[in-house]
Design goal:
Layout (H helix, E strand, L loop, with lengths): L1 H7 L12 H5 L3 E6 L2 E6 L3 E4 L5 E5 L7 H14 L1
Antiparallel strand pairs: 1-2, 3-4
Length: 81
Amino acid sequence: HFRFIEKQNLSILLLSDEEHKVIEQYGAWQKKKNYGKEYFGTVRTTFLINPEGTIKKLWEKVKVANHVDDVFQTLKNMINN
């Protein structure tokens, strides 16, 4: 994921969790169902975590449309308050 960070010019920390250790602790690795077949997979989730490591906002079962705007506005509101 280092190439992705560089390509996107990101200044945030991204986590690679191939063994699902962290994603399971955060509850975002769940049983899913598609066309009648059950399997475990990632539930699209966003966590806004402050520098002290406290989760300040949680978005579960995220839909991509408008999500970035919602997260950005929430972050701006937190910074301004």
